[in-house]
Known about the structure:
The chain is mainly alpha-helical and 140 residues long.
Amino acid sequence: MAVHVLAVLAYKEGDRVTSKFLAGSVNTNPVIVRRLLLSLQKARLVETCKGAGAGSRLSRSPRRINLAEVYRSVEDTESFASPARKPNADCPVGHCILEALSRLFASAQQAMEQDLARTTLADVLAAVKVSEECAGKKAP
């Protein structure tokens, strides 16, 4: 949802966009979008104004926002996590599985974030624009 919201803001090229408009694009409630915008604002990816001229816009060029930044701004847990219950330590597999998975999950998390870091919001917007041309539709 964060990438979607940021892509709309990038598409609007600096114009302020309301949470109601963003919620319409995402197809959710504006309150949910406002909570998301708070996280994005805290990460300095967007700036938001209240009152006259209310709305949000990107805080910098879409070319200077990578998806790893977006991911870290909204995810408070790692994508790959060990099970909550501890396995049976008397089992030969249960005794070592958490350590083995921990290394594997750390490697997978790092690979995912490195891949996201190579993709910018401008890349996403370019893909959206190509898709909209293929579909013959104009984005909001």
